[in-house]
Design brief:
Blueprint: H1 2-23, H2 38-45, E1 60-75, E2 80-92, E3 108-112, E4 121-123, E5 137-141, E6 145-157, E7 169-178, E8 186-195, E9 202-216, E10 219-232, H3 235-254, H4 263-282, H5 296-323, H6 334-348, H7 352-363, H8 371-416
Parallel strand pairs: 1-8
Antiparallel strand pairs: 1-2, 2-6, 3-5, 4-7, 5-6, 7-10, 9-10
């Protein structure tokens, strides 16, 4: 029974307020005073919980003006975008109207927003509370039109695509709509889209907006969806990631010009791999990571490390071949002489290596009296040099093809966006 009596009292209060609102269509002013009287304003303040419409079957039209000021942060792991917005809302209050001629020519006043009804517009993608400073006042003109400026630090969910990092372009949506009122109560209109963008890691490409209807069951909500397209500035990552990695790969290629019979080449390559591993560990924080996929730059670093390991393996093989020339001076098999010393050497045009090996053999002639051992040693030396040149050119071809593929993929992605 108590609940029924409370419902009856609220209904009676609503009827009294509605009848009072119908009785006056404009606020009253006193002669010699600028602005509506406190009594007439208080009557409007008492109606704060109710939508300001004389005919409740007519929806309240709310206009939204959207300005993107800055992108504060992008978290690829949690798929969260943090932005700072300037949001301006317009709506019509049918009980806040007065005649400027009766109010000493006053056409605009500011009122506390907490004393007036305001549309419950939210962003559907928000995932955290707004911690920005709220504006406590609204501007009201004599026709009843209200303007409310809001500073909004928006933390919203966004489906971030990081495959083309650091040359990626993100397209995030901001969906504005009422939390409780359906399209029969509140209609949304889009006014203007603008931006006053500050410098940072991201640059704004475009902002688009569209009004649509969101249907849930039998109810329909009027919503406005904004598409914000932003592009990452890649200079930081090119300087800190791509260029150092390219330098290390270049040094690895130049290390093939070290003498293959020298142990310094293997130790140099192992040191280079260790340095590249440390580089990846230090730069790991700059690389985005999600559960959905891996950026192409991460694949690039992994393949570069694999190529360095292959380069070290090639050095191990060549060192093992050259080691035969210093053990028992075994004779080079006939198929090795035919395949490597004849065909492969002619194919890659390194028959001048025989003269080099012969020269090395002549230098060693005064140190050994066994001509056969010297010839066998030179043959194995020749085999090692030919294999070294062959594997070096194959390695260089792999790196060139890999670099062309990576650059082509990034160029295609940029041209498509």
């Amino acid at each position: 029974m108590a609940g029924s009596w409370t419902h009856i009292r609220l209904s009676n209060r609503w009827r009294l307020l509605l009848s009072a609102s119908v009785c006056f269509s404009k606020l009253s002013c006193k002669e010699g005073h600028s602005g509506p009287t406190h009594e007439s304003m208080q009557a409007v303040f008492d109606m704060q919980p109710f939508r300001p419409a004389v005919n409740l079957s007519n929806p309240t039209i709310t206009n939204i003006s959207f300005t993107l000021y800055a992108v504060l942060g992008v978290n690829e792991k949690t798929q969260i975008l943090t932005t700072f917005l300037w949001l301006r809302l317009y709506w019509h209050h049918e009980f806040l109207m007065w005649d400027p001629e009766e109010c000493d020519g006053l056409t605009k006043i500011s009122l506390p927003v907490k004393n007036l009804w305001s549309p419950d517009i939210i962003v559907y993608e928000f995932v955290d509370d707004d911690v920005s400073q709220a504006c406590p006042y609204v501007y009201v003109n004599h026709t009843g039109h209200i303007r409310w400026d809001r500073m909004l630090r928006l933390v919203s969910a966004c489906n971030l695509e990081i495959f083309s990092f650091p040359f990626d372009v993100q397209n995030c949506t901001f969906t504005f709509g009422s939390y409780m009122h359906t399209s029969e109560k509140i209609l949304l209109h889009k006014c203007t889209l603008s931006h006053q963008y500050t410098s940072g890691e991201w640059e704004l490409v475009d902002i688009l907006g569209e009004t649509s209807i969101l249907q849930f069951g039998i109810d329909e909500w009027d919503i406005i969806t904004f598409w914000v397209v932003i592009r990452r500035r890649p200079v930081l990552y090119v300087v800190n990631l791509l260029i150092p990695s390219s330098f290390l790969m270049l040094i690895d290629i130049l290390s093939f010009y070290l003498p293959p019979h020298s142990v310094d080449r293997a130790s140099f390559k192992m040191t280079l791999i260790l340095g590249y591993t440390v580089f990846l560990l230090i730069m790991n924080d700059l690389l985005p990571s999600t559960a959905n996929g891996t950026p192409i730059i991460g694949i690039y670093f992994s393949v570069c490390l694999a190529l360095m390991v292959i380069s070290l393996l090639e050095t191990v093989i060549i060192t093992n071949v050259l080691h035969h020339s210093s053990m028992k001076y075994q004779e080079v098999p006939h198929w090795v002489r035919v395949l490597i010393l004849k065909h492969i050497a002619n194919l890659i045009s390194v028959t001048d290596l025989h003269q080099i090996c012969q020269y090395l053999g002549d230098l060693r002639a005064h140190l050994t009296s066994l001509q056969k051992e010297s010839e066998l040693q030179n043959q194995w030396c020749h085999v090692g040099y030919v294999l070294d040149f062959l594997l070096f050119r194959i390695y260089l071809l792999l790196i060139s093809c890999y670099a062309m593929v990576i650059i082509s993929m990034w160029c295609i992605w940029i041209s498509q966006t």
